[in-house]
Specification:
Layout lengths: L9 H11 L5 H23 L8 E5 L5 E3 H17 L2 E6 L6 E2 L8 E9 L10 E9 L18 E9 L3 E6 L4 E7 L4 E6 L10 E3 L12 H9 L10 E2 L5 H11 L1 E5 L10 E2 H14 L2 E4 L16 E2 L1 E5 H13 L2
Parallel strand pairs: 3-5, 11-12, 11-13
Antiparallel strand pairs: 1-2, 3-4, 5-6, 6-7, 7-8, 8-9, 9-10, 13-17, 14-16, 15-17
Helix pairs in contact: 1-2, 2-3
Length: about 325
Amino acid sequence: MSTGNIQKTLTQHIQDQQRTHLEATGHLSALLTQLGVAGKLIAAQVRRAGLIEIWGDTGDTNVQGETVQKLDRIAQDVFVETLTASETVAAMASEEENSIIEVNTHQAGDYIIAFDPLDGSSNIDANVSIGTIFAVYKRHGQDEIVRRDVLRPGREQIAAGYILYGSSTMFVYTAGKTVDGFTLDPSCGEFFLSRPNIRMPDKTRVLSINEGNEAYWPGWVKPFINKIKTRNNQDKRRVTSRHIGSLVADFHRNLIYGGLYLYPADARSPQGKLRVLYECNPLAYMAEVAGGAASDGTKRILDIQPEHLHERTALIIGPKNEVALAEQFIKEHS
């Protein structure tokens, strides 16, 4: 990187937001900075995974009944240890754990965080982009931590983001004002601002859905997909299909290029497949800040009141007009 054109670092950006954004207290700034540190540590392990033979699974299963990948466990431990040491969080909820992770009183901070330590881990062996997703909430009070401190609608988030481990490592987050992306420069170990004030394009260029699930779809899905595809004609292909299978990677691409992601409830997963707390809430919050929308098909994702830690839902996320169109199709076919 040329020293004559040095970009703002993640830490500098967080400090700037602290000065201009009332919600960004010094403790929140410290938490966001430590999330960046955790991302660097996990990125280093992802790069070394094949070399030290930690690809694959541990032989255990998580609370979802899924095989726990070795990198999942590493990412989980890194997040818990880094955030505990930061003294900024009072409790954590992880996709990999069956219960709330409470921080000792003498280390407890002002925030609650829910996270998916390694989204897309089933793609690890194929070297496909994976990532960490997180959502930050203000602690209700200084009393003991109870379930209602974590089981909160997404509209109460004060920050959210993800760390993408791909051809480069990116830290993308919002504290409610803008969505900003930072790229890790491995030569100096710093995240530099590379995509300021990301806005979700209004037009859908990419359609992201697993068409292998067509046999299980409810009646509205195929007509909706066909409606989107009719935008292509002999003059121009306006929409293409791209589905990676790592939610964080699919969302990142769609956020940058303009795209609609769908994982509808279906015959196999009548409540939906994706986790409200760890996946849907943070990405929905980011989508809305960036000018997009997210719905379960009948209501805004951020208005869902979760009843348990691993509650699932359907997800439609992308440009506002496309999400509204999907809701219209659902209503017509109900």
